[in-house]
Specification:
It is a single chain. With 338 residues, this protein is an all-alpha fold. It folds into two domains: 256 residues, no CATH class; 73 residues, Zinc/RING finger domain, C3HC4 (zinc finger) (Herpes Virus-1, 2-Layer Sandwich). Helix content is 68%, strand content 2%. Strands 2-1-3 form a three-stranded antiparallel β-sheet. Strand 1 and strand 2 form a beta hairpin. The radius of gyration is 23 Å and the shape is globular. The model has no long low-confidence stretch (mean pLDDT 92). It is found in: Cytoplasm; Nucleus. Keywords: Cytoplasm, Nucleus, Transferase, Ubl conjugation pathway.
């Protein structure tokens, strides 16, 4: 009871490099098992133990976000192609003007796309649901707000939301969507429930603002949820508050960007050339933000500057530089208020 759920969560992250279809198959089975265990009062407390090891949790979270991004990219690319092929085949005049070879190419491509979507969507649905139920736990939710994870989480959620309620949402409207396991209302419900869980946290709304999130998109999603009765009670109230939180955060982000526009080069991440919040020194002597090297090491366990093997335990905090940065930023803020 104490080890099964955490072991499965870790395994979900570890199968990242087992091959595209094998990985999807493994994770679909693991997702089903995790859902069953989560619903068991005997096993649920064990899920929290993964939060005690930050490195392991980040590996799991990276795995679940990589999976979701890959699945969503596949589904959102293939569904419009399926719709286009269906419309051509449903129009006798347009279809009849095509040569037999052209018809065969379209039919073959349609079959390939349908097969891939039918393969991807069940796991995509399960993964979004797993995001939802795991993050009802406050300890787990707090780790998704880490600087190493929150930007990727926000990017992923906003990408899916844009596809579902954005201006091109109709491109996803295919004939008989159930045959592909495509349930847009359920997907939107699960997605907005995740937004609602994070809505009141400053880190989340700040990251939405940094990503360039348009509050209008969020308001459209809120109206859709209300009209279709997808969320109720506290969840709906929390989601309704998010657009205003993001607007407030956007003003703060704009002010900070103005302050940081002339930051000295030594305060910038040597890989991304962005202002560092938590500078660390790599074994090679180069300085980057902790979130940058954490994300890099999840995909490639080497120092990006000399290709030598390393782990996150090999980095050292750049304490002197951090103190210098804090002093500089405080002086800038004081000067800006005058």
């Amino acid at each position: 009871q104490e080890t099964l759920a955490p072991s499965l969560l870790l395994l979900y992250g570890e199968v990242e490099h087992t091959g595209y279809y094998d990985k999807m198959s493994h994770r679909a089975k693991i997702s089903s098992l995790l859902k069953y265990l989560w619903e068991s009062s005997e096993h649920r407390p064990a899920f929290r133990s993964i939060t005690q090891n930050k490195t392991s949790f980040i590996k799991f979270a990276n795995g679940i976000m990589n999976e979701t991004n890959t699945l969503i990219a596949t589904v959102m690319q293939k569904l419009p192609e399926i719709r286009e092929a269906q419309e051509k085949m449903a129009n006798p005049q347009e279809w009849g003007q095509l040569s037999e070879d052209e018809q065969n190419v379209i039919s073959s491509r349609l079959e390939d796309n349908e097969r891939e979507v039918k393969h991807a969507l069940p796991l995509c649905n399960k993964t979004l649901q797993m995001f939802g139920y795991l993050n009802t736990d406050e300890d787990i939710r707090s780790l998704f707000l880490l600087e190493e994870l929150c930007p990727r989480l926000v990017t992923m959620l906003l990408h899916v939301l844009t596809k579902l309620v954005g201006s091109k949402g109709l491109d996803l409207k295919v004939n008989n969507p159930e045959q592909y396991h495509f349930r847009p209302k359920e997907m939107l419900r699960d997605l907005c429930a995740i937004f609602a869980l994070f809505a009141s946290t400053k880190e989340f709304s700040m990251e939405c603002a940094k990503s360039g999130c348009d509050p209008t998109l969020l308001r459209t999603a809120v109206k859709t949820c209300r009209r279709l009765n997808l969320l109720t009670g506290e969840s709906m109230t929390a989601f309704e508050s998010l657009p205003t939180f993001v607007e407030d955060a956007s003003r703060i982000v704009a002010e900070d960007e103005k302050l940081l526009s002339d930051a000295p080069d030594e305060f910038l991440d040597e890989l991304l050339s962005t202002y560092m919040n938590d500078p660390v020194i790599l074994p090679s002597g180069h300085i980057v933000d902790r979130s940058t090297i954490t994300q890099h090491l999840l995909n490639d366990p080497i120092d990006p500057f000399n290709r030598a093997e390393m782990t996150i335990d090999d980095v050292k905090p750049a304490t002197e530089l951090k103190a210098k940065m804090v002093t500089w930023l405080e002086e800038k803020r004081v000067a800006n208020k005058k």
